[in-house]
Design brief:
Distance between the termini: 66 Å
Number of strands: 8
Largest sheet: 5 strands, antiparallel
Structural class: alpha+beta
Number of helices: 10
Radius of gyration: 29 Å
Helix content: 40-55%
Length: 316
């Protein structure tokens, strides 16, 4: 009988039926249960009714416990695949040297008064104006000198030479930095929207949104917005993968991130450095950091605007 039990146990535990999934929890449960019931099954289970009862109990355990474990594992794997299937990229404009230095100065001022601020411009993040921030399918963010015909880099390379066209559009209406404001956890230096900036954002989105991950998740903060803004942003996310494009485009430079009241208090009465209006000259495809920032020195590529484009590779 002992040999019969060992043979039965080895047979069950070495077959796929013994382990319904590759999930460790299910495997452990199967092993423990089978070893618990096998002695009864072998020694006392020769009676047809007892054998049927024990078989039913084992079957129910495997179906319920392992089924749930398998379902949970499959759900987790599916969620992980969804969250990891895209690569975020921030398609943005570089600031003029004067504007960049001023943004860093404002951020340093906030850092000095708010220890919990999580933005560190000039050392960890790059000051910028976002035109389009979304998740792209991984194969679409590869930037190489061969100029793949199905990548974000290739599409940006095509439109960058004419992105400021007609030139007078931006020369007559350059980028102007406005007031500092706090919105939720963000401290932002408002950028006055202009026909130039709106046209740039629109063209960048139209040229690349087909390469984005479809049906992206609506962020929690959008759900809390009033109508009709909420519905407009939800529709934009569904179609273009971003809530802040086209009619919802609101250019700005992020200069701080702190969910306490510290930033608002620090900026009350503070006057930022004066910055001369400027015409953007570089379009960047940046690596996305925390809070939608652009990681300093880790651009996928940069594109000169209004000139013949040569893809500038930036080591990562």
């Amino acid at each position: 009988r002992e040999r019969e039990r060992d043979d039965t146990e080895n047979t069950l535990l070495s077959t796929p039926r013994g382990y319904r999934t590759g999930d460790p929890k299910c495997r452990t449960a199967d092993t423990a249960l089978l070893k618990l019931f096998l002695p009864l099954y072998v020694f006392d289970g020769h009676h047809p009714i007892m054998r049927a009862i024990l078989s039913l109990l084992v079957g129910l355990w495997l179906c319920v416990d392992c089924g749930l474990a398998s379902s949970s594992a499959s759900s987790s794997a599916s969620s992980a695949a969804t969250s990891e299937e895209g690569t975020s990229a921030n398609l943005h404009l570089k600031l003029s040297e004067e504007a960049e230095a001023a943004a860093i100065e404002v951020n340093s001022y906030i850092n000095s008064r708010c220890p919990s601020d999580d933005i560190f411009l000039g050392t960890m993040q790059q000051p910028h104006i976002t035109l389009y921030l979304t998740e792209f399918l991984p194969n679409n963010v590869t930037c190489d000198a061969s100029g793949s015909t199905s990548s974000v880099c290739a599409d940006l390379g095509v439109i960058a030479p004419s992105l400021e066209a007609p030139p007078s559009l931006c020369e007559d209406d350059p980028v102007v930095l406005g007031a500092l404001e706090v919105s939720g956890c963000y401290a932002m230096w408002e950028v006055v929207n202009s026909p130039c900036l709106q046209a740039m954002s629109d063209r960048v989105v139209n040229a690349t949104y087909q390469l984005a991950v479809p049906n992206q998740t609506v962020p929690d903060w959008v759900e809390d917005l009033p109508e009709p803004t909420k519905s407009e942003k939800e529709a934009l996310i569904k179609s273009f993968g971003s809530p802040n494009v086209f009619t919802q485009f609101a250019p700005h430079v992020t200069v701080g991130y702190d969910c306490s009241a510290c930033v608002a208090d620090a900026l009350a009465g503070y006057t930022p450095p004066a910055v001369a209006p400027f015409v953007p000259t570089v379009l960047g495809m940046g690596t996305v950091g925390d809070y939608g920032t652009v990681v300093l020195g880790e651009d996928f590529a940069d594109f000169p605007l209004g000139t013949a484009v040569e893809l500038e590779m930036v080591p990562r």
